[in-house]
Design a protein that fits this description.
4 copies of one chain form a homotetramer. Chain A has a 7-stranded parallel beta sheet, sandwiched between helices. The first copy, chain A, has a 6-stranded mixed beta sheet with strand order 11-8-12-15-14-13, with helices on one face. In chain A, strands 9-10 form a two-stranded antiparallel sheet. In chain A, α1 (14-23) crosses α12 (348-360) and α6 runs parallel beside α8. Chain A folds into 2 domains: 4-154 and 348-360, NAD(P)-binding Rossmann-like Domain (Rossmann fold, 3-Layer(aba) Sandwich), CATH 3.40.50; 157-340, Dihydrodipicolinate Reductase, domain 2. The radius of gyration of chain A is 20 Å and the shape is globular. Chain A has 12 helices and 15 strands. By secondary structure, chain A is an alpha/beta fold. Chains in contact: A-B, A-C, A-D, B-C, B-D, C-D. At the B-C interface, α7 of B face α7 of C. Chains A, B, C, D: It comes from [Candida] jaroonii.
């Protein structure tokens, strides 16, 4: 089957570099075009980038000539655009590609709250993509090509909602939810990213805007598509109350979240039932046979001192989420520790899997 | 005024070393005797210890000859015994000194749950010492000298209860309390202590027994002396529910705790009222003029990204507790971040201040 | 071709765990038997081990029953024994297996200095294996099976000699050699290994015995097999002088070494010639087609700030060595930075590749 | 005695903040004026600065109004100017103050190589200040006030030359000198300073310009004032060859340097003689009674695993240098490990001590 042409915006940044790594040798996509700032445009990628990944710069990317982030040139020929742009420029650029009929999968926060833009954790709420399926299908009937934007969720939201989804499906809605996060520094990029002196023998108990993102995005992701398949019904503050406390710590990759939750139902499940539901959960992406989908969506750990980021973040290539220390909570119903790979399921990796799903659903 | 003779048990360990540092040049105490394992007994301290403090080994300690941890020799002549013993030996040894009429201030966990042993955070519940005051006074009337044990609280409990005490005094009892801790490694000692590979680019989301200690000790410390001044009325599970999640992270000193609480009273105070009560709080030790008592018991920080362990742990030489990010909580009433110095107010330092208070109250 | 039966001694330790990871699904070897302390013997491996690797415990190892480290049971049926034993027990145990005709590849230091035991860095001095080839062949002529021991070098020696070998081959002997190492903590194992408090915001400028190992082992590895193929001619102190300064730092995997060297020849090569020789070097293991042999033995990096352990340690799965900052030295001839993966080419990984080479040479 | 009025340029930066900390409550100086960028000018210091020190912002600094870095206002009234400016602006600004008759003590690199500017490590080459003494005295004879600049050395140079000075005085010139540094991140400031991802589980084996600074500055500092007391005779490449290899590692404060040296004299001293000379060394600043001068300039450590940055960097408030592991070197004569506090003796602290010396010598 012909490979889909993929373009990467913000190609020299940390998210862009990871998109490129994941697209090299991908069975569905061809790394076709790269966009970056005017400073980089016109250069070969190998000359434009300060490559800072643990894997070598893929040969297939080295000689690609970087373009400006505009709907022109090879970028305009792509089937799907992956955007790793900073939020200060993402809004306008992504809109331009969308308006010109392209599928845009974005890591930026700009359109996450837009009423008709799906906010997707690809192991959780792939049903929300029905909105773009409909939009594209309707246009196709008219012989048109309709662009759209799909947003990747915030990294710490992704890990949080992964175990919640099967729990809600099995035991009904969640009433109260608290999450204290211990977040890795890779999520902050590297120009400059988190300063070394801030995380050496230290914690920063604050990440700008992060707590609000967790509290808000959870309500969209756990919400539903509305009846006419054109937008979303978010959970209201009455339906779920969410409280987050976010910390930046000296971990390279992998967000750890100490969470606690209370179900709405009086009759709460047993600890063993909670574990079993998590163990049994298979995400739709896996059922669709997507290349990057995790075989085990949730890894339930029984060791008393797990999950640990260094040891557990790479389960299923970072697409699997680890949950440990599941136990009763004297204040709410259950508490547990959730670990997810912030640059995989929480950023670039999620974007790739979303595109795989879109392809499996014939949307791109 | 004559200095009180002080002995240190477990003198070569990490807690013992800190007792020694704090006792050197202390205005109330003379470092008089040292106890350690039979392997060290008979040696000069300088030859027995692998000194691992950032301050140099005090001259006054170097030539002290280490004794076995028994009620004999110079240890038997002490006015107060500071115990940094491990729990596997502390039980018997501390009892021997107590039974022989000595005042024992212990960092071990063995007697924390004993009905007539005060469990003290010296900036919080010094009123609990009335039990030993009475015991000693009653004996004195009969011309006797009565020994006793006072326990230092667990390190993470100390930081947690510091802001709770003035809040309870001002706004009434707390109904629900959650604490997710990010704990320093110094608390685990250094033979071997926390393994480097466990905290490098990693978190261990588990500390053996720690969550139980926080949940139980809080109920004793926030409880009251009973009517006849011989024991304690702990808060019951109905009076307060406490839930802790403990993590070990790559910080040398200083426990950070993300806490959340709900008052029993329907009418909850404003954020500003909470801050004001914390700012105004003066611990009894300060009012008594104790040498080590913090001038500001609680430092209320207004910067959005504080407290941070590296920057804030040494306030008032580690005896002051920092509280920041005080804000309303969508799930409980308020959330905030508490930072305390685990080896000062949470261990050896607390022991010294407790002894200063006992001296100020003429108990030793 | 039939798989060779492999046994692992010290199977629950850090080196043993890595042997097991590397042997699972190996094309040459079958993980056949496991030896550990009497405490573990009789248990299934999954129950005996505290698994602390980033990859999951291989299914093929889980149900293997651990045996004592003696020449009996399944261990006695092995074609090759990989020893990750501590040096306090390795001497006797390895000798027993060797005396009973087995091939032993050992990570312990006990036999490294034995006159007839090859000390091997498998990307460097595979010609030294001729001694065991001869020993085994001679015995075979007599219808006997002769055991032998091959020692893996010290981890920091491995990285150091990797670039030296091709340089000596091209430009003649080295007169003076200095190496200041910045060593990872994984090399120290994890019971207890390096204490966290020793490497958090800290360096320990000392590793017991390490400098002596580097200074001595280099002379054996860069030396030659003697004329009758029964032992080794070490370089003498007149032939090469080596000086090492070793530091333990907060890196998980990957030893960085700042080295400087002076050739004996007056006419020294250019920097570019040095680089070219390193780039061109192909180890014998690669030419033999060994499964784990690095495609590029030496990666010459041109970026001014490389190699870096986190980014470069995994080249060729850790079997490739990275060399950067090659430049003239005002004091000796050249200085450069060498990075090698201490648990791969410097420990368990080296053992596996040595065994692959032995198999390729029909010694096992 | 009247306090000298002190001004700080670059007052909001990391070096400036440390100048301010050290000047608060200083017995010789009054913190009188603050200069920073136009963005900060006109604001109270407490409002202009993002304070990131472990000590609280001194009360005496809070309400000082920040000025632009020009010879005007209160800055023009100072007796001494401490410059923590970045090198891109330091050149012009410092010259303006100097040309207007002020004493400038600068941490910037701009004038370090100027022929008549002393480059001072205040525990090493205070005799080099004779040049400004003469300049000022000559002007005074003419009733004039002559400005001058004194440069603080590079941080890693400071630690290196500290033990060299007494060794050269005792045993004659050094022929060869190598230094491999493991440098703390505080030296790089904090906007942005060293990125966290660069030092977490990592080393960066390169610091821009650092090796050249060490190799060049050592020759000026160990050189001499010329005969007419107007400039310096640097050591030539024939007199000493210096080679440095610099690494950035995960330490907050304290540069560790593994050094090796060879004396010119054939007859080299014993290890014990080297130690004794270092132990006996007293810097001139101490003899002059300067407030910040270290009581022990060099701390010679006998423990095999010291100095360590976390444990030893604060000797004599960071003005004392620790030297350990002094031993013979198979390649040069001696090797040893030197630890110095980079922000004290290697930056702001050195500036304060230099000013104290200038005052003691009646130059300011």
């Amino acid at each position: 089957m012909a490979l889909k042409k993929a373009g990467v915006l913000g190609a020299t940044g940390s998210v862009g570099q990871r998109f490129i790594l994941l697209l090299a040798d991908h069975p569905d996509f061809e790394l076709y075009a790269l966009g970056a700032s005017p400073r980089s445009a016109g250069k070969k990628y190998v000359d434009a980038v300060k490559w800072k990944q643990t894997s070598l710069l893929p040969e297939s990317a080295k000689d690609l000539v970087v373009e400006e982030c505009k709907f022109q040139g090879k970028l305009a020929e792509c089937d799907v655009i992956f955007s790793g742009l900073d939020s200060d420029v993402a809004g306008e650029v992504e809109k331009e590609f969308c308006d010109n009929g392209l599928a845009v999968v974005s890591n930026a926060k700009n359109y996450r709250r837009s009423p008709d833009v799906p906010l997707i954790v690809p192991i959780v709420n792939t049903d929300h993509l029905s909105i773009v399926e409909k939009k594209v299908a309707d246009a196709k009937k008219n012989g048109e090509k309709k662009g759209f934007i799909v947003c990747i969720s915030n990294c710490s939201t992704a890990g949080l909602v992964a175990p919640l989804k099967p729990l809600v499906d099995a035991f009904g809605p969640i009433d109260l939810l608290t999450a204290t996060t211990l977040q890795a520094i890779s999520g902050a990029g590297f120009s400059p990213g988190v300063s070394g002196i801030d995380v050496l023998d230290n914690i920063v108990p604050f990440i700008s805007g992060e707590e609000e993102k967790i509290e808000w995005e959870t309500k969209k992701i756990l919400g539903q598509v509305n009846d006419d398949n054109t937008g979303f019904k978010l959970l209201s503050d009455d339906e779920i109350r969410v409280s987050a406390q976010c910390n930046r710590i000296a971990v390279s990759d992998g967000h750890t979240e100490c969470i606690s939750l209370k179900f709405k139902n009086e009759k709460k499940p047993s600890v063993e039932e909670v574990k079993q539901v998590l163990r049994d959960y298979q995400c739709e992406a896996f059922k669709l046979g997507c290349h990057s989908a995790p075989k085990n969506t949730i890894h339930v750990l029984e060791e008393e001192d797990r999950p640990q980021p260094r040891l557990d973040r790479d389960r299923d290539n970072g697409y699997g989420v680890s949950v440990g220390r599941i136990r009763e909570d004297p204040v709410l119903d259950f508490k547990m520790v959730v670990l997810s790979h912030n640059t995989v399921i929480g950023a670039a990796g999620a974007g790739i899997l979303i595109a795989e799903i879109l392809k499996a659903k014939n949307v791109i």
